[in-house]
Amino acid sequence: MNVPSHIPKKQDAIHIPSLLEDEKMLLEYERVFQSLADSCPQLMWMAKADGWIYWYNRHWYRFTGSQEPDMHGWGWQSLHHPDMLPKVLTRWRSSLDTQEPFEMTFPLRGADGEYRSFLTRVIPVKDAQGQILRWFGTNTDVTEQIEAEKALRRSEKQLNDFFDTATLGLHWVGADGTILRANQAELDLLGYTAEEYIGRPIAEFHVDAPIIEDILSRLCNNEKLINYQARLRCKDGSIKTVLINSSVYWEDGQFIHTRCFTRDITERRLAEDALKKSLQREQLIRRVVELANQGLELEKILHVLAQEIGDFFQADRAFIIHLEQSARKFHLGAYAQYCRSNKIRPYDPTGMSPRLQELYQRNQSLESMMIVARVSSPEEYYHYCRDYLKERDVSESEQDIYCREMVSLNFEREGMRALLRLPVSYRGIPYGNIVLHQCQGNRVWSDEEVTTLQEIAIQVGIVFYQTQIAQAEKQAKAELQKSYEREHLIRKIVEVIGQSFEIDSILWTIADELGKNVGADRCHVSRFYFEDDKLIFCASGQYCALGIRAVEQGDIELITKALQHLTPKDVRTDQEQVANISDPEAYIAFLRQQMAPYHLPGLSTDQLIEMVRKYEAKSTLRVLIRYRNIPYGSITLTQVSHNREWLPEEIELVKIIAEHAGSAIYQAGLYREAQETALKEQSARQELERYAKRLEASNNELEQFATIASHDLSEPLRKIQMFADVLKSKVQEDGKDYLDRMSSAACRMQVLMDDLLTLSRINRKGQPFKPVDLNEIVKTVLEDLQMMLQESRATVSLENLGTVQGDETQMRQLFQNLIGNAVKYSRVETSPVVKIYGRPKGDHYETVIQDNGIGIKQEHTTRIFEPFQRLHGTEKYPGTGMGLAIVKKIVERHHGILTVESEFGSGSKFSVTLPMK
Ligand code: ADP
After folding, report:
1. Which of 127, 546, 604, 905 is 20 to 30 Å from 487 at the Cα level?
2. Which pTM was predicted?
3. How far is the CA of 822 from the centre of ligand 1 (A)?
4. How far is 704 from 647, CA to CA, in rounded Å?
5. What's the 71 CA to ligand 1 centre distance in angstroms?
6. Checking phi first, is residue 177 left (phi over 0); if not, alpha (psi -120 to 50) or beta?
7. For 705-716, how does the pLDDT look when each residue is reduced to its tens digit (9 = 90+)?
């Protein structure tokens, strides 16, 4: 315990100088002492030799608040703590007895009632003989000091407790770098005993020498280390990663020691590392997936992947190999190799000897593909190779040779030190391998690495799988595109066919479009037809790819001429529609067979074959153009550059087009016929028109003639009649007869001319049509004929008739002629009976004039309607032969129908049907 400086040092006794004898000096001394004692911060008192206190300094009274009389003697006890007082009394009495100085710390109650601790020291004042004169005591207030000491002790204890019980490692390092102190946690962390650790240089325990140097230099620069990562060596040789928090304890600018907290983060670090690795792995896997989804080419994807995988595993070489499978055999597809640095020579896959290569190829199989290689030495590699060949078609000795060669190739030549090779498969289908090589230093592949690579291999398997699907899709799309193109081609051809009846242009289009579409070197469309039983052959369309020799015109002509000798009988309709010939010899054989039945002058089979050779057709596809089983020609595709297998869809396409071509040729033929018919019709129409014109002209002439006749001839006729009448009275009886005949002839001629005039005027001088009541017409006619009816004693019955649209005058003329004839051509022995009746027929009205007269022979029923046609002489039945011609013409003008039914000898029935509207 440190004693405060203001407390007098412990002394055995105070010796009063003998100068006291001088009273003045004594007084002076007392005054000085009094003022000293009063100004002193301590409590002071003096007692007689027996302990009876007779003096206190002023500070005593001030502190205790006591009064002088109460304090004299042993009164001080009232200020003591009852618990302590017995001890104090005991000790004080003992000092009085022994005359030894007294020293004790005890509490005294102050004026405020609070106890404070005082260090009390009492020393005896002795005279020269050593007799105690008095006791001199001081009470020094040490309350705060005691509190401070207590606090210090508490804090030290706490510190020690903390130091010892802290779960965190804690050590102090001195200025010289030795470990001064270390707690249990620290010792436990590193596995040392206190003896093994404390007193040793801290640098011995650090794994990384630069780190401890750095730590010390930082600390000396008064830097506080917070979470400084370091690696400490444990007693068992393992290494712990710790975080150090440290600062220096300085005293008066002097480096005393560092206090270092050591937190073990090895686990955390491992976990972090694992996490980091797993994040990297995830990242890599994500990258694989990403790459797969970018739709890049497989080669590119593999290139990037090989690099990333190589980086991730820190392998010297990384390979990704895609193997394509056909018939359980594999061959190299896409391939990527990554080399970590330019110090690593790329692996040379061609380094295998041919024998080895052959062996390798022969033994690539599903099972061998799936073998995992985890190799870190030539021996292991040898065994791996043996495994690879196990149960294969390789003898034991061969296996050994092969494996040795592989070891030497890979370890010596290609510098491989370790190999990790995993199969890449997806859904059980192997797609290839991922291979890692270590070339520098030895390497043992950890389980974790193998697992990770396996995970990656799964993803790469998905990449391969997706790529395969994408390829299949691409192929399907291309197929679809091709089928669109074909559809388009068919549509185009059909369109051309639809627009054109020009067979040649259709066939050229077919040759051109089809040739291009199927990528043939040549496409021929030829056709034939017969003219006068001769086969006309024509090569109507030809397409040639760039650089391909076109069939020369001369050759075409040669064939054309030769085929001319074929007749329709020769053209076989039973030929196979498709001849698919994929090599030249087969084509020649085919031609021989085709030509065999015919003799073609000017073209022998050999000549034809020579021609085929000249045009170098390697593969030929010939499809007949047929329609309704009639051959019209053929489409021939040839490949010159290579032998070609014509695909079923190509054959189908050509067949479809051949069908369209057949129908096009057929329709073009129909069109041509239709055109010819139309031409004929046109010329007939023109002929008709010409005839009509001629007719009109002749009608005009007739009318002119009639007009002339009526006007110009009437006059001379009348004169003849007049002169005949005059002459009759002047000539003899026999001469009268001549005159009568002359006059009657003139009269007949007059009638004839009138009739002619009437006929000619029917069309040109007709009245406009209007509703005509046939009852009215017939009645008028009967009235006009009344004389004739009476003379012949005819009976006429008339039924109610309808109304028609017509020319009234012409209607009267019509009925007059028909009724007149019915009465006129009566049988001699029978009075005429005429029946007139009618009935509507649709929108027409049919009127019948039926008689019981002489009838008309069947063969004359047409002739009677022609002008001047008469069946009888005028002596028997007078007439001009114009009556029915006029009737016919009137009916025609009215767009009606005129018919006659008659039974010779018993009567006739004339029917007139006219429109009512
Ligand atoms: P036409 O009476 O002046 O000789 P038509 O042209 O009226 O001339 O008649 C032509 C011919 O048709 C007549 O000569 C007659 O032989 C025959 N014919 C016409 N009407 C009848 C009839 N109702 N019965 C028998 N024959 C008739």
Report:
1. 546
2. 0.41
3. 8
4. 83
5. 200
6. left
7. 777 767 777 777
